[in-house]
Amino acid sequence: MKKFTMTIDLGGTKILSALVDDENNIIMREKVATNIENGAEGIVKDIIGTIENLIKNADVGMQDIKGICLGVPGIINPFEGIIYNAPNLQLKNYNIKSEIQKVIDLPLFLENDVNLGALGIKRVEFNNKVNNMLVIFIGTGIGAALILKGSLYRGSSFFAGEIGHIVLNIQKERSKKNNSTFENFASRTAVVSRIIEAIQDGEPSVLKEYVVKGRKIKSRAIAEAVEAGDKLVKEHLYDSSRVIGNMLGNLQTLLNFDTIVLGGGVIEAAGDFMMPIIKKSFKKSYFDVTGEQTKIVSTKIGDDAPLFGGWEVINEGLSLNIK
Fold it and tell me: What tens digit of pLDDT does each residue of 31-57 get?
Protein backbone atom coordinates (compact mmCIF):
# COMPACT_ATOMS: atom_id res chain seq x y z
CA MET A 1 0.00 0.00 0.00
CA LYS A 2 1.32 3.44 -0.94
CA LYS A 3 2.36 5.63 1.97
CA PHE A 4 2.64 9.41 2.17
CA THR A 5 4.34 11.99 4.34
CA MET A 6 2.80 15.29 5.35
CA THR A 7 4.77 18.48 5.80
CA ILE A 8 3.38 21.64 7.35
CA ASP A 9 5.49 24.78 6.93
CA LEU A 10 4.33 27.02 9.77
CA GLY A 11 5.13 30.66 9.01
CA GLY A 12 4.36 33.91 10.75
CA THR A 13 1.79 34.86 8.11
CA LYS A 14 0.82 31.60 6.40
CA ILE A 15 0.66 27.85 6.91
CA LEU A 16 1.79 26.02 3.76
CA SER A 17 1.22 22.27 3.81
CA ALA A 18 1.40 19.29 1.46
CA LEU A 19 0.94 15.56 1.18
CA VAL A 20 3.97 14.03 -0.58
CA ASP A 21 4.68 10.51 -1.86
CA ASP A 22 8.03 8.70 -1.88
CA GLU A 23 8.70 9.82 -5.47
CA ASN A 24 8.55 13.53 -4.51
CA ASN A 25 5.13 14.09 -6.01
CA ILE A 26 2.97 16.61 -4.19
CA ILE A 27 -0.43 14.89 -4.06
CA MET A 28 -2.29 17.73 -2.40
CA ARG A 29 -1.36 21.12 -0.98
CA GLU A 30 -3.06 23.76 1.09
CA LYS A 31 -2.31 27.32 2.21
CA VAL A 32 -4.12 29.23 4.95
CA ALA A 33 -3.35 32.34 6.97
CA THR A 34 -1.62 31.84 10.32
CA ASN A 35 -3.85 32.70 13.24
CA ILE A 36 -1.50 34.02 15.94
CA GLU A 37 -4.06 36.36 17.49
CA ASN A 38 -5.55 33.49 19.50
CA GLY A 39 -2.16 32.32 20.71
CA ALA A 40 -0.90 28.74 20.82
CA GLU A 41 -4.42 27.32 20.98
CA GLY A 42 -5.40 29.05 17.72
CA ILE A 43 -2.25 27.88 15.95
CA VAL A 44 -2.76 24.26 17.05
CA LYS A 45 -6.40 24.40 15.95
CA ASP A 46 -5.36 25.62 12.48
CA ILE A 47 -2.69 22.92 12.17
CA ILE A 48 -5.16 20.18 13.11
CA GLY A 49 -7.65 21.61 10.61
CA THR A 50 -4.98 21.60 7.91
CA ILE A 51 -4.13 17.95 8.61
CA GLU A 52 -7.75 16.89 8.48
CA ASN A 53 -8.45 18.88 5.29
CA LEU A 54 -5.45 17.43 3.45
CA ILE A 55 -6.44 13.87 4.32
CA LYS A 56 -10.06 14.48 3.35
CA ASN A 57 -9.31 16.30 0.07
CA ALA A 58 -6.64 13.82 -1.00
CA ASP A 59 -9.02 10.93 -0.25
CA VAL A 60 -6.51 9.01 1.88
CA GLY A 61 -6.85 7.53 5.35
CA MET A 62 -4.85 8.13 8.51
CA GLN A 63 -3.33 4.68 8.01
CA ASP A 64 -1.81 5.89 4.72
CA ILE A 65 0.24 8.64 6.43
CA LYS A 66 3.72 7.64 7.67
CA GLY A 67 4.09 10.78 9.72
CA ILE A 68 3.89 14.54 9.89
CA CYS A 69 6.72 17.07 9.94
CA LEU A 70 6.08 20.57 11.22
CA GLY A 71 8.49 23.27 10.01
CA VAL A 72 8.91 26.09 12.54
CA PRO A 73 10.68 29.46 12.17
CA GLY A 74 12.63 29.33 15.39
CA ILE A 75 14.62 27.23 17.83
CA ILE A 76 13.09 23.80 18.37
CA ASN A 77 13.77 20.28 19.59
CA PRO A 78 13.03 18.21 16.47
CA PHE A 79 12.01 14.98 18.19
CA GLU A 80 10.60 16.00 21.57
CA GLY A 81 8.41 18.51 19.77
CA ILE A 82 9.23 21.55 21.88
CA ILE A 83 9.35 25.06 20.43
CA TYR A 84 11.98 26.80 22.54
CA ASN A 85 11.50 30.16 20.87
CA ALA A 86 9.60 31.18 17.72
CA PRO A 87 9.23 34.98 17.92
CA ASN A 88 7.14 35.31 14.75
CA LEU A 89 4.62 32.88 16.22
CA GLN A 90 4.84 34.33 19.75
CA LEU A 91 5.57 30.85 21.09
CA LYS A 92 8.16 30.04 23.74
CA ASN A 93 8.94 26.79 25.61
CA TYR A 94 5.81 25.21 24.18
CA ASN A 95 5.35 21.48 23.51
CA ILE A 96 3.29 21.73 20.35
CA LYS A 97 3.79 18.04 19.57
CA SER A 98 1.90 16.82 22.62
CA GLU A 99 -0.95 19.25 21.98
CA ILE A 100 -1.43 18.16 18.36
CA GLN A 101 -1.16 14.47 19.22
CA LYS A 102 -4.04 14.80 21.66
CA VAL A 103 -6.19 14.93 18.51
CA ILE A 104 -4.03 13.49 15.70
CA ASP A 105 -2.67 10.02 16.44
CA LEU A 106 0.25 10.02 13.99
CA PRO A 107 4.04 10.24 14.40
CA LEU A 108 4.89 13.96 14.54
CA PHE A 109 8.27 15.67 14.28
CA LEU A 110 9.43 19.29 14.33
CA GLU A 111 12.21 20.87 12.30
CA ASN A 112 13.54 24.37 11.87
CA ASP A 113 12.03 25.77 8.67
CA VAL A 114 15.38 26.58 7.03
CA ASN A 115 16.74 23.12 7.86
CA LEU A 116 13.60 21.68 6.32
CA GLY A 117 14.13 23.74 3.16
CA ALA A 118 17.73 22.57 2.90
CA LEU A 119 16.68 18.92 3.17
CA GLY A 120 14.13 19.47 0.42
CA ILE A 121 16.74 21.09 -1.83
CA LYS A 122 19.17 18.25 -1.16
CA ARG A 123 16.53 15.64 -1.94
CA VAL A 124 14.86 17.17 -5.00
CA GLU A 125 17.42 19.44 -6.66
CA PHE A 126 20.51 17.34 -5.95
CA ASN A 127 18.94 13.88 -5.69
CA ASN A 128 20.72 13.54 -2.32
CA LYS A 129 24.06 13.59 -4.17
CA VAL A 130 25.64 16.47 -2.30
CA ASN A 131 28.28 16.20 0.38
CA ASN A 132 28.94 19.51 2.15
CA MET A 133 26.32 22.16 1.42
CA LEU A 134 25.37 25.52 2.86
CA VAL A 135 21.83 26.78 2.25
CA ILE A 136 20.94 30.40 3.04
CA PHE A 137 17.50 31.96 2.81
CA ILE A 138 17.47 35.75 2.57
CA GLY A 139 14.17 37.48 3.13
CA THR A 140 12.54 39.17 6.10
CA GLY A 141 15.44 37.75 8.08
CA ILE A 142 18.41 35.53 7.25
CA GLY A 143 18.63 31.85 8.12
CA ALA A 144 20.97 29.07 7.07
CA ALA A 145 21.26 25.31 7.20
CA LEU A 146 24.32 23.06 7.09
CA ILE A 147 24.55 19.74 5.29
CA LEU A 148 27.83 18.10 6.35
CA LYS A 149 28.92 14.71 5.00
CA GLY A 150 25.49 14.38 3.41
CA SER A 151 23.53 14.85 6.64
CA LEU A 152 21.82 17.76 8.32
CA TYR A 153 23.94 19.30 11.06
CA ARG A 154 21.70 20.72 13.81
CA GLY A 155 24.35 21.56 16.40
CA SER A 156 24.59 20.45 20.03
CA SER A 157 21.52 22.50 21.06
CA PHE A 158 19.71 22.57 17.70
CA PHE A 159 20.88 26.14 16.98
CA ALA A 160 23.30 25.57 14.08
CA GLY A 161 22.77 27.77 11.04
CA GLU A 162 21.56 30.95 12.74
CA ILE A 163 24.08 33.06 10.84
CA GLY A 164 21.81 36.08 10.79
CA HIS A 165 22.93 36.71 14.36
CA ILE A 166 26.65 36.76 13.56
CA VAL A 167 28.00 40.11 14.72
CA LEU A 168 29.42 42.36 12.01
CA ASN A 169 29.49 45.73 13.75
CA ILE A 170 30.21 47.60 10.53
CA GLN A 171 29.17 51.07 9.47
CA LYS A 172 26.23 51.18 7.09
CA GLU A 173 27.71 52.68 3.96
CA ARG A 174 24.55 54.51 2.92
CA SER A 175 22.91 55.08 6.29
CA LYS A 176 23.40 57.09 9.46
CA LYS A 177 23.10 54.10 11.78
CA ASN A 178 25.55 51.45 12.89
CA ASN A 179 24.82 47.83 12.23
CA SER A 180 25.43 44.93 14.55
CA THR A 181 24.54 41.69 12.80
CA PHE A 182 24.54 40.07 9.38
CA GLU A 183 20.73 40.04 9.34
CA ASN A 184 20.55 43.68 10.37
CA PHE A 185 22.55 44.61 7.31
CA ALA A 186 21.83 42.15 4.51
CA SER A 187 18.22 40.99 4.95
CA ARG A 188 15.39 42.41 2.87
CA THR A 189 14.09 44.12 6.00
CA ALA A 190 17.41 45.89 6.47
CA VAL A 191 17.73 46.88 2.81
CA VAL A 192 14.18 48.25 2.76
CA SER A 193 14.83 50.19 5.97
CA ARG A 194 17.84 51.91 4.41
CA ILE A 195 15.93 52.65 1.21
CA ILE A 196 13.08 54.24 3.18
CA GLU A 197 15.56 56.27 5.22
CA ALA A 198 17.22 57.57 2.05
CA ILE A 199 13.89 58.45 0.40
CA GLN A 200 12.80 60.33 3.52
CA ASP A 201 16.07 62.27 3.27
CA GLY A 202 15.08 63.35 -0.23
CA GLU A 203 16.88 60.86 -2.48
CA PRO A 204 14.92 60.02 -5.67
CA SER A 205 13.47 56.55 -6.21
CA VAL A 206 10.58 54.89 -8.02
CA LEU A 207 9.63 53.54 -4.58
CA LYS A 208 8.89 57.00 -3.20
CA GLU A 209 5.15 56.43 -3.62
CA TYR A 210 5.36 53.39 -1.34
CA VAL A 211 6.97 55.49 1.37
CA VAL A 212 4.59 58.42 1.01
CA LYS A 213 1.54 56.15 1.19
CA GLY A 214 2.98 53.92 3.92
CA ARG A 215 2.82 50.81 1.75
CA LYS A 216 5.05 47.82 2.47
CA ILE A 217 8.02 47.42 0.13
CA LYS A 218 8.20 43.70 -0.65
CA SER A 219 10.58 41.69 -2.82
CA ARG A 220 8.53 42.16 -5.99
CA ALA A 221 8.64 45.97 -5.62
CA ILE A 222 12.42 45.79 -5.19
CA ALA A 223 12.73 43.66 -8.34
CA GLU A 224 10.60 46.10 -10.34
CA ALA A 225 12.74 49.01 -9.14
CA VAL A 226 15.88 47.20 -10.28
CA GLU A 227 14.29 46.51 -13.68
CA ALA A 228 13.48 50.21 -13.92
CA GLY A 229 17.14 51.06 -13.28
CA ASP A 230 16.49 52.69 -9.91
CA LYS A 231 19.91 53.91 -8.75
CA LEU A 232 19.07 54.08 -5.05
CA VAL A 233 17.65 50.55 -4.85
CA LYS A 234 20.53 49.10 -6.85
CA GLU A 235 23.07 50.80 -4.58
CA HIS A 236 21.56 49.27 -1.45
CA LEU A 237 21.15 45.85 -3.04
CA TYR A 238 24.78 46.07 -4.13
CA ASP A 239 25.86 46.77 -0.52
CA SER A 240 23.81 43.84 0.75
CA SER A 241 25.06 41.48 -1.97
CA ARG A 242 28.68 42.40 -1.33
CA VAL A 243 28.33 41.65 2.39
CA ILE A 244 26.51 38.36 1.64
CA GLY A 245 29.37 37.29 -0.64
CA ASN A 246 31.91 38.23 2.00
CA MET A 247 30.06 36.19 4.63
CA LEU A 248 29.89 33.20 2.29
CA GLY A 249 33.64 33.45 1.74
CA ASN A 250 34.32 33.46 5.48
CA LEU A 251 32.06 30.44 6.02
CA GLN A 252 33.72 28.70 3.08
CA THR A 253 37.12 29.17 4.69
CA LEU A 254 35.76 27.63 7.89
CA LEU A 255 33.83 24.64 6.49
CA ASN A 256 34.93 24.15 2.86
CA PHE A 257 31.58 23.53 1.15
CA ASP A 258 31.22 21.98 -2.29
CA THR A 259 27.85 23.69 -2.84
CA ILE A 260 26.22 26.90 -1.62
CA VAL A 261 22.53 27.47 -2.36
CA LEU A 262 20.74 30.79 -1.93
CA GLY A 263 17.00 31.21 -1.61
CA GLY A 264 14.37 33.42 -0.05
CA GLY A 265 12.12 36.14 -1.42
CA VAL A 266 14.75 38.74 -2.24
CA ILE A 267 16.93 36.23 -4.13
CA GLU A 268 13.92 34.90 -6.06
CA ALA A 269 12.92 38.45 -7.02
CA ALA A 270 16.30 40.13 -7.63
CA GLY A 271 18.71 37.22 -8.01
CA ASP A 272 19.73 38.18 -11.56
CA PHE A 273 21.14 41.43 -10.18
CA MET A 274 22.46 40.11 -6.87
CA MET A 275 24.06 36.76 -7.73
CA PRO A 276 26.94 38.10 -9.86
CA ILE A 277 27.85 40.59 -7.11
CA ILE A 278 27.62 37.89 -4.44
CA LYS A 279 29.86 35.55 -6.44
CA LYS A 280 32.43 38.28 -7.10
CA SER A 281 32.58 39.22 -3.41
CA PHE A 282 32.75 35.53 -2.46
CA LYS A 283 35.82 35.00 -4.66
CA LYS A 284 37.59 37.84 -2.87
CA SER A 285 36.79 36.51 0.59
CA TYR A 286 37.76 32.85 0.96
CA PHE A 287 41.23 31.66 1.91
CA ASP A 288 43.58 30.39 -0.78
CA VAL A 289 41.97 27.64 -2.93
CA THR A 290 39.15 26.65 -0.54
CA GLY A 291 36.35 27.98 -2.77
CA GLU A 292 37.66 27.49 -6.29
CA GLN A 293 35.51 24.41 -6.97
CA THR A 294 32.48 25.55 -4.97
CA LYS A 295 29.20 25.96 -6.84
CA ILE A 296 27.01 28.91 -5.85
CA VAL A 297 23.46 28.61 -7.17
CA SER A 298 19.95 29.82 -6.38
CA THR A 299 17.25 27.30 -5.56
CA LYS A 300 14.68 26.50 -8.22
CA ILE A 301 11.93 25.08 -5.99
CA GLY A 302 11.30 28.14 -3.80
CA ASP A 303 8.52 27.77 -1.22
CA ASP A 304 8.16 24.06 -2.02
CA ALA A 305 11.60 23.24 -0.60
CA PRO A 306 10.40 22.65 2.99
CA LEU A 307 7.47 20.56 1.74
CA PHE A 308 9.89 18.04 0.24
CA GLY A 309 12.22 18.15 3.25
CA GLY A 310 9.67 16.67 5.61
CA TRP A 311 10.16 13.20 4.11
CA GLU A 312 13.77 13.15 5.40
CA VAL A 313 12.87 14.22 8.94
CA ILE A 314 9.97 11.78 9.26
CA ASN A 315 12.00 8.81 8.05
CA GLU A 316 14.91 9.76 10.32
CA GLY A 317 12.57 9.92 13.30
CA LEU A 318 10.88 6.64 12.47
CA SER A 319 14.24 4.92 11.97
CA LEU A 320 15.18 6.02 15.48
CA ASN A 321 11.85 4.63 16.71
CA ILE A 322 10.68 8.07 17.84
CA LYS A 323 6.98 8.87 17.46
Answer: 988 888 888 999 999 999 999 999 998
- pTM value is 0.91
The CATH number of the domain where 244 resides is what?
3.30.420.40
The four Cα atoms 109, 266, 222, 86 give a dihedral, to 10 degrees, of 40
CA atoms of 11 and 33, how far apart (whole Å)? 9
One domain for residues 269 and 311: no
Among 234, 10, 6, CA closest to 114: 10
In-domain check, residue 121: no
pLDDT for 116-143, tens place per residue? 999 999 999 999 999 999 999 998 889 9
